[in-house]
Q: What sequence folds into this?
């Protein structure tokens, strides 16, 4: 079994959940809990697929997916921010709606083959042994995912905008009193989360599988949600979590294919087992773990005046 | 007071007596289905839904069908079955192995509702039937083609759960691939899901990376077909024809045809002749169909595959005919001996030559 192929497979398997999770992280940092990640992902998967097939351009497909995911998230945004509906219930409804809606649009796209997404070609650089195939010869969306992690981290940590977003997520009344537009900021965060989830979904339908099948996200959105908690709302930990989960998933499949003598039950269990293990270690200091959760997470904001 | 009560009681009695006649004339038979994946998976659940549509076409307004898709195997299934039974459904088809316990549990509570469980073996109550198809007959034919078509002598097999039905398929495919090509090796990957396109695609790629050039699957989506196409190797449609991938990578397929069985059983309920049965049909009865062998297969291999299929259908050849040893080398079937259905239904061992262990 070659480590090169394994690492390449790891990148492909972890990108959808990485994209969706980094988007959800921003949403949660603004104090909103959107459980509709699965619904937005699958909407992105079909929007991206449809646009890519119709236009023949994977790039336009990914843009379409981001727009589709964002549009979907705006349903959630309007319901929870203006109509003050319960975030948990609305998020769950969004997932159900997204699954059904995508199946409806997807009717005509079953069995079609999307245009293939080009891989980065740095000429001689991509031919460097080991490093070339592992680091430098993926499709652009893989790098976009990594760039988003770095970008979100830097933005949340160093920029004024990031600080305002965090303030809104920690205490929306105080942020409101300071004159920040809590609802507007949260809507922007929700839209960003939707766009990222849409990209993640499209990565499934355009690169990882690549085809359209109803319900094809098969729970990836829920894993993305869990990753955010796993990462205790820290962008780099989201990346580590995605690699860990995606990596162990492909590793165990590859070990099986290679006929390595390890009990299969153990291998299949391993992604979940290790995730739980890491979660336990990370949260062993309970006070610190709790401190990381945005204080206003999931709470409804209604301006008094 | 007493008088009014009696009067009311009489009126109710008269109504109750009149109702059954009206009901028989107007109330359609309600038939429910639960599926493990979405109806658009183009595989297993899709074919069950085709059976449901055939029932509607056959009986028109005199039946009313409902279905619930993507039902997890376990407590959720029990909840949905209870709801269906409470909603007055007369006959419920539960179309995945993992619905076995929920089906029997709910059947105990609703003795008037008829239950049909696919691919299971538990009929604890007189209102539960089981039905399945002899997929291993189709697998034998596909295994033969796979053995002939591989040039790397490596066949990949994406398996779902270690249950007898899946193990039977692996054994049958391997046995006939080996007969067609003594050098053949088979790698099995267990994905522990019936439907997860992402994971199925990953499993397919993992096998392809190992040099597999013919891919078989016992999962429900077409994701492995897409991976096979990308890699330029061969594959087989599973549960449904998966004709979108013809003529290559998909060079053959097993199609589950449930429609005749579903129509027959609904008819039995309407006529009041329904009783608990165990049905296991194969190529002969048409429950297992073989999809068109594509032109990517050489003419003579197609002819051999057809001949094998015909001899199985005619009952001249049983896919598990001895001599066959178990994986550990111990004897299973002697020369010329064929397996009984009991052993096949409970199959929990690999045959000789397959490497790896069956997970528990």
A:
């Amino acid at each position: 079994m070659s480590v090169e192929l394994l690492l390449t497979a790891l990148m492909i398997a972890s990108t959808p959940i990485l994209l969706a999770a980094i988007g959800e992280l921003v949403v949660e940092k603004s104090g909103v809990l959107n459980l509709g990640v699965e619904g937005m992902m699958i909407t992105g998967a079909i929007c991206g697929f449809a646009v890519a097939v119709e236009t023949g351009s994977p790039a336009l497909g990914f843009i379409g997916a981001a727009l589709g995911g964002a549009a979907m998230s705006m349903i959630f945004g309007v319901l929870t921010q203006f109509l003050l509906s319960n975030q948990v219930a609305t998020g769950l409804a969004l997932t159900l709606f997204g699954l059904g809606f995508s199946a409806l649009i997807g009717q005509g796209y079953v069995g079609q083959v999307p245009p293939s997404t080009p891989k980065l070609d740095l000429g001689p650089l991509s031919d460097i042994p080991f490093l070339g195939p592992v680091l430098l010869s993926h499709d652009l969306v893989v790098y976009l995912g990594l760039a988003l992690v770095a970008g979100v981290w830097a933005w949340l940590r160093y920029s004024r905008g990031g600080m305002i977003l965090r303030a809104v997520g920690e205490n929306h009344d105080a942020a409101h009193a300071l004159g920040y537009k809590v609802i507007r900021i949260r809507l922007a965060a929700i839209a960003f989360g939707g766009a990222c989830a849409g990209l993640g979904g499209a990565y499934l339908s355009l690169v990882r599988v690549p085809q359209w099948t109803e319900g094809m996200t098969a729970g990836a959105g829920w894993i993305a949600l869990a990753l955010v908690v796993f990462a205790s709302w820290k962008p780099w930990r989201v990346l580590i979590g995605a690699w860990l989960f995606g990596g162990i998933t492909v590793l165990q499949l590859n070990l099986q294919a290679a006929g390595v003598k390890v009990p299969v039950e153990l291998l299949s269990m391993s992604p979940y087992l290790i995730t739980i293990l890491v979660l336990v270690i990370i949260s062993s200091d309970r006070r610190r773990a709790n401190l990381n959760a945005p204080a206003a997470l999931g709470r409804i904001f209604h301006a008094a005046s | 007071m007493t008088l009014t009560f009696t009067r009311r009681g009489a009126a109710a009695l008269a109504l109750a007596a009149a109702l059954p006649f009206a009901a028989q004339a107007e109330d359609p038979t309600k038939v429910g289905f639960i599926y493990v994946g979405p109806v658009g998976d183009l595989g297993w659940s899709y074919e069950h839904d085709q059976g449901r549509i055939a029932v509607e076409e056959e009986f028109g307004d005199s039946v009313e069908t409902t279905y619930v898709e993507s039902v997890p195997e376990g407590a959720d299934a029990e909840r949905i079955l209870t709801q269906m039974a409470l909603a007055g459904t007369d006959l419920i088809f539960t179309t995945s192995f993992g619905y076995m316990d929920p089906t029997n549990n709910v059947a105990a509570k609703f003795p008037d509702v008829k239950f049909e469980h696919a691919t299971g073996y538990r009929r604890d109550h007189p209102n539960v039937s089981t039905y399945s198809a002899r997929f291993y007959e189709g697998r034998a034919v596909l295994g033969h083609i796979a053995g002939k078509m591989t040039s790397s002598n490596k066949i990949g097999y994406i398996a779902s759960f270690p249950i007898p039905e899946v193990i039977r398929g692996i054994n049958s495919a391997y046995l006939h691939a080996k007969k067609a090509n003594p050098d053949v090796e088979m790698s099995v990957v267990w994905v522990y899901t019936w439907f997860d396109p992402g994971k199925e695609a990953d499993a397919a790629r993992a096998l392809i990376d190992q040099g597999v050039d013919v891919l078989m699957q016992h999962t429900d989506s077409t994701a492995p077909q897409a991976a096979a196409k990308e890699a330029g190797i061969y594959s087989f449609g599973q549960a449904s024809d998966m004709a979108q991938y013809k003529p290559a990578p998909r060079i053959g397929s097993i199609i589950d045809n449930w429609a005749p069985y579903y129509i027959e059983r609904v008819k039995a309920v309407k006529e009041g002749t329904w009783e608990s049965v165990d049905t296991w049909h194969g190529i002969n009865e048409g429950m297992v169909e073989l999809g068109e062998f594509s032109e990517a297969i050489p003419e003579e291999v197609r002819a051999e595959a057809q001949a094998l299929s015909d001899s199985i259908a005619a009952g001249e050849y049983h896919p598990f005919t001895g001599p066959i040893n178990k994986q550990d080398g111990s004897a299973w079937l002697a020369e010329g001996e064929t397996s009984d259905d009991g052993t096949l239904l409970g199959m929990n061992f690999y045959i000789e030559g397959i490497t790896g262990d069956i997970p528990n």
Q: What stands out?
A: Chain A has 13 helices and no strands. Chain A has a mean pLDDT of 88. Chain A touches chain B at residues 1-2, 5, 9, 12-13, 16, 103, 106-107, 110-113, 204, 208-211, 213-220, 249-250, 253-254, 256-259, 261, 263-265, 268 (CB under 8 Å). The radius of gyration of chain A is 20 Å.
